[in-house]
Amino acid sequence: MEVGKPLSNRPDEGRIEINVECYPTATYASTDKGANEIAENLKITLQSAYRSDALDLRRLCIQSGRQCWIVYIDLLLLEGGGNFLDAASLAIKAALIDATHLIDPMNSKQLMPKDTEVTTPFFSEKLLPVFVTVHKVGNSHIVDASKEEEACSLSRLSVVVYPDGCTGDMLQEGCGSCQLETIMDMFELAKKVGMELNSALTKTLRLERELRS
């Protein structure tokens, strides 16, 4: 994280910048060019979800139009067994939940000693989403697909899912076409799994913090 200048069209907000690097060994790509294309597509897709108004990036503003926090997230993919997008979104959410800043005792509404250092999260875990990708393989729908399962998939639907079950961006890819009923079934499955993933990740991080304290 570092202090920077807000965007001119969003003077009261900070921002999240995501960078993805992908080794050829982590993908089907046999060249750096192919790996770079995969990394760029991942970056664009992830960035779109974390620039959403639902995140309340105003919490990153220090001084309107002058200073803000810029959160840099670097993802390095060394080896993969498939399902890059969903796994990357889980890692990003975990990192953002742990991102905290100090509370100034002089400006706090709570009574505390001046020498006390108290931190508070930048983001509420309730506002941070994950991606869930559902693959259509034959007549079945698969989540958390392996490389082999991805190779058999003719169509996939990626959905941004928030902890409360609300959804954001959707991305459909693949060479096969889907009927509306099939897409709705895939969407409902993604929504259900997304809520479970959000809940499981939050519980895991809370347990980890308890063990560290």
TrEMBL record:
Gene3D superfamilies: GHMP Kinase, N-terminal domain
Exoribonuclease phosphorolytic domain location: 8-99, 129-192
Entry keyword Cytoplasm: yes
GO molecular function, one term: mRNA 3'-UTR AU-rich region binding
UniProt-annotated location(s): Cytoplasm; Nucleus, Nucleolus
Main location: cytoplasm
Biological process per Gene Ontology, one example term: TRAMP-dependent tRNA surveillance pathway
GO cellular component: cytoplasmic exosome (RNase complex); nuclear exosome (RNase complex); nucleolus
Keywords assigned: Cytoplasm, Exosome
UniProt record similarity statement: Belongs to the RNase PH family.
Protein name: Ribosomal RNA-processing protein 42
Record organism: Opisthorchis felineus
